[in-house]
Amino acid sequence: MPSKTPYVVFGYGSLIFKPPPHVISQVPGFLKGYVRRFSQKSHDHRGTSENPGRVTTLIHKEDWDHFSGSDAFPDEDVVWGIAYTINPLYESEVRDYLDYREKDGYTLETLDVYTIEDGIENVVVHNVYNPSFVGSEPLAALADRIWRSVGPSGKNKDYLYQLAESVRKLAPASFDSHLFALEDRVRELDDKSGDKTQG
Predict the structure, then answer these.
(1) Which of 46, 61, 171, 192 holds its CA 20 to 30 A away from the CA of 32?
(2) What is the pTM of this model?
(3) At what angle do helices 139-148 and 156-170 cross, to 10 degrees?
């Protein structure tokens, strides 16, 4: 049975450019006290078991600080994304869809999303102790991993490029220093290799 309050999901990774089904409205916004990092192995979408790619995680800033020895942006704690309001008739179906799509160790939390009226929304926050969490990696090594990785859903770098472009378009003030720096590194690898097929 649908809940009485609207079921709203905050998308911060691929949900920004590949929304969940049955969305009736959406609005850009941001979280405070969190970081978005490419710290989750992807062996089923943007990589393989032998060569896992990297996809984004949303992590409490204080948790990330324990893993951020090589993080180039240790003081950043704002994450831009989109809050999707789901048609209440399909709440259960969308929850099942997200459970499958966002597997590998996460929790569902209710958080404040800023720039949204009455902004308390549901957010998938990754558990840093799940087996696919890799923690902080040097930007150059992470860029190389993403540049080389390909999985059933396509090239890992295309996921990065789509996310970076989508975050830029959210709002005039939307930004993500880590995401944009990582994009620049991967595009440099494209340039060096002569690959002009990037997204």
Answers:
(1) 46
(2) 0.85
(3) 120
Tokens for 54, please give them.
């990297």
- Asked if 186 and 78 touch (Cβ cutoff 8 Å), the reply is no
Could you report the per-residue pLDDT of 69-88, keeping only the tens digit for each? 667 787 888 999 998 999 99
Contact 70, 138 (CB under 8 A): yes
Catalytic residue numbers, as ranges? 102
DSSP per-residue string spanning 34-95: EEEEEEEEESSSSS-SSS-EEEEEEEEHHHHTTT-TT-S-TT--EEEEEEEEEPGGGHHHHH
State the chain's maximal CA–CA distance in angstroms.
Answer: 54
Q: Residue for token digits 């409205």?
A: 25
